[in-house]
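Title: Prediction job returns without error message
Component: structure pipeline
Severity: low
Priority: P3
Assignee: unassigned

Description:
Job completed but the reporter wants confirmation the result is attached to the right record. Sequence as submitted:
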Amino acid sequence: MATKGYSSYHGRGSGRKTGLIILLVLILLAAVAFLLSQRYLVYDETGKAHWELPFSRPSEPTPEQPENNPISPEDVVIEREDPQPEPQPQPEPQHPKLTELHAQELENGSLWWDPEYVLSLVSESMMVEVKRPTGGITYGTEVETAPGVVVERGVTRENLTALLRSDHYAVARISCLRDTSYAEGRPEAALKATWGDVWYDGDGRAWLDPAAETTRTYLTALCAECARLGFDEILLDGFWYPVSGNQEALALPEGLNKTAALTELAAAIRQVLPENVALSVAYRSEAGALGGGSGLTAELLSSFDRIYVDEAVDRSALDQALPQTFDRSGGLALLCYGKPESGGYAILP
């Protein structure tokens, strides 16, 4: 039965419980909020924290939708690069193996004669002077020459071709750097005096400059033509720097390496010759001692397939200077005016 003037009594403990529950709920909500907030707390480059809520983040790119007509595997072209092979070292050119030479040079003007008669005078190999020390060419060359160079045209080229079709071994002798006509007609190819004009040696002959591009172009073209005509061997005569005459008046570049210039010229000529055509050089006493002013050295001479020496050269000294690997049986020949008792030779008329 209720007491009059009083509501029902709940006691003092009931209010405390309610307050405690509310406090615990608030603490729980605060903890949940703190944990959730860690997902959106972002630190910038300076270390400063800031909120980045989901609706403020930049949207991530969506993957592209496939096309209505996807490409089939058959339509895909895959280009595959095969691995490039490593460059292999180029083998050294194989020079022809020469045997002992027994040759005779044709007489002056023989290319004007009947080829059959000329061949009747040749017993074994033959040598033909195709370029004289004056610069004249003894056959109808197609190589461009210089004004003043005498070229013997007419039947000479046809007769030379007929001679070269024979079974005789044939050597083309080229007066290489002693060349008055070409030097005077193309001064840019000539050795110069200190005052700028063409220089002349003690015999009044002009010389071509081995280092001049015009000289190289002319001589390589002439040697290549001789090889095409059918010569088996090209002999470079007068292949050195002049040592006679007024050497002080000879204008040469400071620090010039004569041997290197001759070596480069020989290499350029070798490059235009077929491998079965030999390249030879003459060493005459007028060039002086090896290693002197001519630029000739034993090493340079030995780089040729054959060396022709005249009768005044000290052959024993040359033999000692040449490397032991040089083939002396077929690589040495005598330039002479009479048949020697033994060894290789070329008899001049």
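Comment from assignee: result matches the submitted record. The two ends are 169 Å apart (CA to CA).
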